[in-house]
Amino acid sequence: MAIVLTESAADRVRDHLTKRGAGVGLRVGIKKTGCSGFAYVVNYADEIRPDDAVFEARGVTVVVDPASLPLIDGTVVDFVKQGLNEAFRFQNPKAKGECGCGESFNV
User: Fold this and answer.
1) pLDDT, tens only, 67-104
2) H, E, C per residue of 7-24
3) Is 22 exposed, middle or buried (0-12, 13-18, 19+ CB in 10 A)?
């Protein structure tokens, strides 16, 4: 089981953790919502809870709650800049479909 960050995503997380001056890594999870059923939730992790799964990706700690992990295991997280827009993008091998806007997915 693993969550992988591209170099671009890892650089973004490291930069923001440095600017924040706090945090242990990136927390990735899901919530039920959106057009397709689930949406990704990305925050900076300020703590690691006892039941969290913890991965190391390109020198960045990635933290995932146990309920989210089965649905996002194997996901590659990228950070993409397109013109004025920038966002994390997810390549989830478990996703069977995504909504048109790319904000939600189903399994």
Assistant:
1) 999 999 999 999 999 888 898 999 989 887 776 555 66
2) HHHHHHHHHHHHHHCCCC
3) exposed
Q: Quick check: is 102 in a domain?
A: no
85 DSSP 8-state letter: E
Q: Kindly state the tokens that stand for 18.
A: 């440095």
Asked, for residue 82, whether it belongs to a domain, the answer is yes
Instruction: Provide the domain limits for residue 78.
Output: 4-95
- Kind and range of the H or E run holding 44: strand 37-45
- Which percentage of the chain shows pLDDT scores above 90? 70
pLDDT digits (tens, 9 = 90+) for 10-47: 999 999 999 999 999 999 999 987 566 888 899 999 99
Of 75, 84, 83, residue with least CA distance to 107? 75
CATH at 79 = 2.60.300.12
